[in-house]
Amino acid sequence: YNNEILTDFNGILYPSVFDKEKIITTLANDEKSVPMQFDVREDLIYKGKASITDGRFSFEFRVPKDITYSYGNGKIIYYAGNDTTDASGYFNAIVVGGTSINITNDTEGPEINLYLNDNEFSNTGIASPNPLIYAEIADESGINTVGNGIGHDITGILDNNTTNPIVLNDYFESNLNDYTSGILRYPMSNLGEGWHDLQVKVWDVYNNSSLATLRFRVVGENSIIIANVGNYPNPASDFTRFTFEHNKAGESLTVEIFVYDLAGKLVASFNENIITDGFNTTLPEWPLTDLYGNKLRQGIYPYRVTLTDTEGRKTHSHQKLVVIRQ
Predict the structure, then answer these.
(1) Segment 112-130, tens digit of pLDDT
(2) Angle at the Cα of 86 (from 82 to 87), degrees rounded to 5?
(3) How far apart are CA 13 and CA 46, in angstroms?
């Protein structure tokens, strides 16, 4: 397009900014081979998202301490897209190196909110054998994804296996038009049934670190489990929402709820089909009305939640709803 600006293009830009190339030497493990050198560009300085309006965009970020300080050409790789079109390109004349004279006095590590699959997950919750590490991360200076400094990678430790950390640098992406916050997504697979402990450590660009921990229980894929059934608010006066955990994230499920009075008479029922990204489900607001649309009287109402998957497997749990009328 000869540098023509596409003024009718509106969408999202996904820039990835890399440090300079490094010379890597092969190990020559084969007895007939010899060490060979080659160039590789693998140190990611920044990965984010920026709005494109009428073909124009801009983004900003702070460069981490862990770059290579000698001057040389870095590289920006661009991908852009909208509902109908995508685009790509690169720029390799950006100079990376040196130290700014305007360095912020930042001594606080990033804020980390750690979950599985989505931000509805609760600590000690249940999960499938293939959950997604999901973390919301924020720091006023930005997140370090270079990892050049020893020990400064974004890392995950599963079940205290410190000898095999999961390097997560490439799985963090800044939020739209905001280098100070972003989302980490990393797929785990084939986890054994039972309890697991997860630790995620993150550094900001000034090498301040923070650690977040999460404990969860994996349930096999050949069974369906429901846990932590409840409703909120409870006691309720105007409305409530039913909540529960399950091990079938991303699958189609049928939810049935039956509400009874203390005499065992059915007063309300629900039947919904759901597909959730995560392992925690909150159903829509219920205005505390019976089968005929009348408001429930004050009192205690036992209820049963039944969950059915596409294979016909069922599980259920019981709880009590308290209704207060003023």
Answers:
(1) 999 999 999 999 999 999 9
(2) 130
(3) 13
